[in-house]
Amino acid sequence: MNRYECLQSLLPLITDHLVVTSQSGQRIEWGSLSKHEGNLLLGEMGAALSVGAGLALALPKRKIVVLESDGSVLLALSSLATLANLEISNLAVFVFDNGAYSGTRISEPTATGGRTDLETVARGAGIERSMTVRDLAGFERHAASAMEGKALSFIVCKVQESLLHRDIPRPDLDLLENKYRFVRYLQQTEGRLPSFIGRG
Amino acid sequence: MEPELATRLVTSLREAGIDFVSYLPESRLSQILPLMRKDHGFKLAPSASEADAVSIAVGATLGGKQTACYMESTGIYVSCYQLLVVALHLRVPVLLLVSHLGGFDDQRNSFLYSLAGRRLIPQFEALDIEFKVLENGNHLEQDIGNAVRTMNALREPVALVFTGDFTV
Hints:
The structure holds two protein chains of two kinds.
Chain A: H1 3-10, E1 18-21, H2 25-33, E2 39-41, H3 48-58, E3 64-69, H4 70-74, H5 78-84, E4 91-97, E5 100-101, E6 108-109, H6 118-125, E7 130-133, H7 136-148, E8 153-158, H8 175-190
Parallel strand pairs in A: 1-2, 1-3, 3-4, 4-8, 7-8
Antiparallel strand pairs in A: 5-6
Chain B: H1 3-15, E1 20-23, H2 32-38, E2 43-46, H3 50-62, E3 67-72, H4 73-78, H5 80-90, E4 95-99, H6 114-118, H7 120-127, E5 130-134, H8 140-154, E6 158-162
Parallel strand pairs in B: 1-2, 1-3, 3-4, 4-6, 5-6
Helix pairs in contact in B: 1-8, 3-5
């Protein structure tokens, strides 16, 4: 199983969901697959979990999907304890765990390429609905369940390292352009804008 | 901090439109937490790290909340990366409520805190985050209102740094 296959399977499940990605491979691949206005493609590692949590708390009737990587989650392990204790029910987290820092171009192993198991870490942090999937059928089953469920889901997707993201076009949406498109989409669908918009 | 000052601080935040506060508790302004918890005008998000708290506030702001992030001075060091690459990079306003633990006017300063306190202001300057130091509550309501208006105008985090009377 590779990340792109998983994202292709996820694509038809996304309707009015908000999708937050961290850097890097999942950002590029999801940005290529989906032009959904509810995508927020963050430009860094270590923040998508918490940004997604903030959205989930602000919009409790909306399903938030976070697309993460092992390296990014490892950079923000405190976020797991934070999320577990916020009683968020509308957040589904997919961690594409290839056990390597693919962005380094020399495939340095991450801790999950060694002894660390993110499902166990998440469960220990208090996220009860933590699981690991290792094949596409399992991914599709758990993804559908997570999208419909009313509990915080943390799905570690064990994927092969893939360099596909180096070959497909990178998203050309500037971070600020993305932000404004995202909040305008929320204006259309939620009927409200953040307080920093519209005061010209 | 005197209870009356804590009450004024919480009331001022609510009246300035703040309706979401992420935080890691600390020792100087902590009286505001039970007051905010009792006030249904605030959604609170306790965090295990100030780094989480900043990113949570950014997400909540994008989701339509008017947010504040409460922490002590050391939290700015912890959350520096998130402030830079999330809040500043995306240009998202968040009101940073920072107790100046270890600062010159910190009434409970000690050798444990002074190093972090001394370098807080240069940290804001390095991040190019607008800030104001409040030593007392003489203009508290006005200062909080000004900070919220400024952060929305700048589309960036703005900090209020609490010292002096707030650290008693």
